[in-house]
Design a protein that fits this description.
Blueprint: E1 12-13, E2 25-32, E3 41-50, H1 59-63, E4 67-68, E5 77-78, H2 82-85, H3 90-107, H4 115-123, H5 151-171, E6 173-183, H6 185-195, H7 198-217, E7 222-227, H8 236-242, E8 247-254, E9 257-263, E10 269-275, H9 283-310, H10 321-338, H11 342-345
Parallel strand pairs: 1-8, 2-7, 4-5, 7-10
Antiparallel strand pairs: 2-3, 3-6, 8-9, 9-10
Helix pairs in contact: 3-5, 3-9
Length: 349
């Protein structure tokens, strides 16, 4: 690698000439539930590996016809922005369920027997038991489409999982990471109090996934795309602080696309990009988006099942601010009688 300029105290380097990175692992990170008042914030991540880096340039093309960029596709797995894949209909639930289950099969993961098994396996080393303290936890399902899983659907899914595996196998592509984590309102509120910033709290969640990807796949040459949220444009010092011992080189900080190169003394090397609307550019980000949305919607199904049994006269909520306030108003007396503290359910930011 070309000589670098001297680092400042943060470990961040100014731009300098470099050799191009030919990544053999490409990864994506995305979130769901950043804006709601109720329910968890969820993060998804995934990574694909190939010995031939050219195979990773356009994974939609390499994995077709098993996958499609079209979010409403019914004849293929709709790997796209989860806000467009998912809808509050049986068809929308099936589309998202198909994507999650078929890529879990590609990763070699068995079907979960219950919600705890799914959430714990999805979070991996980032799992903690805070989720199990949620009042609705025992009502959480492990499938969004349980009532829709007839024999025809299950056969279609099995066929599509086999086609996906065949396309990945023929291209020499392996799914090497697949995860998601749900962070409860209580966890978020404690973090908001500690960091003083919603953006800083979200960064802590993203950084945890980045550390895993960097540790496990940096030696192969790693390219990570993170869907960019909010107005932040400068990530260099955050990367340096979150990945101790890593050198960070800024490649560019254009509107909507911030790029950095990382390396360390153990031979790891990566390019990390923070891109607006990244689900349209990167299949790994789109898949991470679907994973995050799936975890969020499983949680809200559990939420509405639990409180629907407690107060059947109160309509379910998706947890977003306006409707979340309606739900809290209608549930006020019932929540007080149940002794559920507001900070366990309602985000402070």
């Amino acid at each position: 690698m070309a000589a670098r300029r001297k680092a400042d105290d943060s470990g961040l380097f100014a731009p300098a000439p470099r050799e191009g990175l030919r990544a053999r692992v490409v990864a994506g990170i995305d979130e769901a539930g950043l804006g709601p008042l109720l329910g968890p914030y969820t993060l998804g991540w995934c990574a694909f590996r190939a010995d031939d880096p050219a195979r990773l340039v356009d994974l939609w093309r390499e994995l077709a016809p098993a996958v499609s960029r079209e979010p409403t596709a019914l004849d293929a797995l709709a790997v796209a922005d989860s806000k467009e894949v998912w809808s509050r209909t049986s068809r929308g639930a099936l589309r998202l369920e198909r994507v999650v289950r078929c890529f879990e099969a590609l990763r070699g993961l068995p079907a979960p027997e219950d919600a705890r098994a799914w959430f714990a396996r999805a979070a991996g080393e980032l799992w903690n038991e805070e989720l199990e303290r949620e009042p609705w936890w025992s009502s959480a399902p492990c499938s969004l489409a349980q009532g829709e899983l007839d024999e025809t659907e299950l056969l279609w899914r099995d066929d599509m999982a086999r086609l996906l595996a065949a396309r990945a196998g023929s291209a020499g592509i392996e799914l090497v990471a697949l995860g998601s984590r749900a962070t409860t309102p209580a966890e978020l509120n404690r973090s908001f109090e500690r960091t003083g910033s919603k953006g800083a709290t979200v960064w802590e969640e993203v950084a945890a996934a980045l550390r895993i990807l960097w540790r496990d796949h940096g030696a192969a040459g790693l390219s990570v795309v993170v869907d960019r949220q909010g107005g932040r444009a400068h990530y260099g010092r955050l990367l340096a602080a979150s990945l101790p011992g890593t050198r960070v080189l800024m490649l560019g900080e254009a509107p909507g696309d911030s790029r950095y190169e990382l390396d360390d003394d153990e031979g790891r090397r990566a390019e990390v990009r923070f891109v607006e609307r990244a689900e349209a550019l990167s299949l790994p980000v789109a898949l991470a988006s679907c994973r995050a949305k799936y975890a969020r919607e499983l949680s809200m199904q559990g939420f509405n099942r639990h409180f629907g049994a407690v107060a059947p006269e109160v309509l379910p909520t998706a947890g977003y601010v306006e409707d979340g306030r309606r739900w809290l108003c209608e549930m006020h007396d019932r929540l007080e009688s149940l002794g559920i503290p507001r900070e366990r359910l309602v985000r402070s930011r």
